[in-house]
Amino acid sequence: MNKKMQKDLASIAINLAKIAWSNTVVRMLVILFAVVFIIAYFGGVTPDKLWNTRQTPPAPQSQTTAPTQAPVPSQTQDAAPRNDSGDKVAIGGYNIFVAEGENGSTYDREGKFGPAWGYDLNNNGCDTRNDILDRDLQNTKVGKDGCTVLSGTMVNDPYTGKTYDWQRGRNTSMAVQIDHIIPLKYAWMHGADKWSQETREQYANDPDVLVAADGPANAAKGAKGPSQWEPENKSYTCQYAKSWLKIADKYNLSVDQADADWLSDTISSCK
Predict the structure, then answer these.
(1) What are phi and psi of 213, to 5 degrees?
(2) What gap in Å lies between CA 188 and CA 103, rounded to an integer?
């Protein structure tokens, strides 16, 4: 439509509006008609475009399936020794990385390994401490919640060899403690500082790493390696060495040269 035709149509619309102004219905129709063509005039919209204004529906977006939850990484997925200048040595059927530990000044129990025993990694509804107490004590009595171990008997304590009754209480609970066989600080100094937070928390709550033992003996052990501290209970010495090797291999932790020598000598004397 050229501009002359648009002007003519606009003029017709205005004249019709004047004629029919006295009739309300006609008046409204005329006004609507006039408005439409005035818009067409100023907007440059031709009638064919004006009457064919159906919007083309947008193309449907492709349906994507929500991603499945990523599997929990294996506990050694990102494990790597901190000091990679050492060598791996075969000890007791394991290849153990031997390197001196780094400075432990940045170690922080809760900050690096999570709150003590605040996890339920095996999804049984109970925290780690109670799981290990129930595993390592005999004749356990459990509370109404089905988790809290109230009492039990420690038979042949792994660190002291003693047998004694244990009961939960303000002044008695710490008589049995849950120990990390390779201490958390030692692990931090020998590779754990490179792990993800998730792996460190898994390590701190891994049943393979933990044992229920005499509280004072565990306190004396602290963060020492096996060359500096070994159990008083000699019947447990071989198991202690095997556990160190198994854990170091599982998590790719390094050990100091003195600890590697102790582990090698001890394992060679075990049946």
Answers:
(1) -150, 170
(2) 9
Same domain, 31 and 91: no
Query: Distance of CA 104 to CAs 25, 64, 227, Å?
Result: 91, 47, 18
One domain, residues 147 and 202 = yes
Asked if residue 71 belongs to a domain, the reply is no
Find the DSSP H helices in 80-223: 109-113, 128-136, 184-189, 197-204, 215-221
As for how many domains the chain has, the answer is: 2
Residues 112 and 217 in one domain: yes
Prediction pTM value: 0.71
Task: Grade residue 122 by pLDDT with cuts at 50, 70 and 90.
Answer: confident
44/6 Cα distance (integer angstroms): 9
Residue matched to tokens 């029919």: 20
First to last CA, the chain: 104
- Expressed as residue numbers, the domain containing 100 is 87-268
